[in-house]
Amino acid sequence: MSLETPPRPRMISVPAFHDARGSLSPLEAGILPFNLARLFFIRDVPPGARRGGHHAACDQFLFATAGACVVAVAGGAGARENFILEAWKAGLFVPKGMWLELSGFRDNAVIAVACSERYEAPAH
């Protein structure tokens, strides 16, 4: 019987190409450890507010396109790890089922979140 190590959160670099016209950062197949099904943006977060505070419903990749924030991630064992997202630096892969919370938004932060699954509204 093979025991697989569960995926862990990790920073992933996004390539950047620079020339006299500016910079281009493609997010192509093979960079993310999952197929992209949805993309959304977190922005206009008031000072002191937090986002997330729940378990990830699918694999996610968080990337700051402006400003910065802190992402706290915890797994089944409860060990909490903090990651800092800064604009156009590496992004954070968060595997499905991990608890995450975003805080410390600064400099008009905009966080892009790529997801492995489409959004399903909760049944009422």
How would you characterize this protein structure?
By secondary structure, this protein is mainly β. The protein contains no helices and nine strands. It has strands at residues 10-12, 17-19, 22-24, 38-42, 51-55, 60-74, 80-86, 91-94, 99-115. Strands 1, 4, 5, 6, 7, 8 and 9 form a seven-stranded antiparallel β-sheet that branches. The protein is globular. The chain starts with 9 loop residues before the first strand and ends in a 9-residue tail after the last strand.
Brief synopsis:
It contains no helices and 9 strands. It is mostly beta strands and 124 residues long. A hairpin with a 5-residue loop joins strand 6 (60-74) and strand 7 (80-86).
Number of strands: 9
Q: Structural class of the secondary elements?
A: mainly beta
Q: Overall mean pLDDT score? A: 92
Largest sheet: 7 strands, antiparallel
- What is the approximate shape? globular
List the SSEs and their pairings:
Layout: E1 10-12, E2 17-19, E3 22-24, E4 38-42, E5 51-55, E6 60-74, E7 80-86, E8 91-94, E9 99-115
Antiparallel strand pairs: 1-8, 2-3, 4-9, 5-9, 6-7, 6-8, 6-9
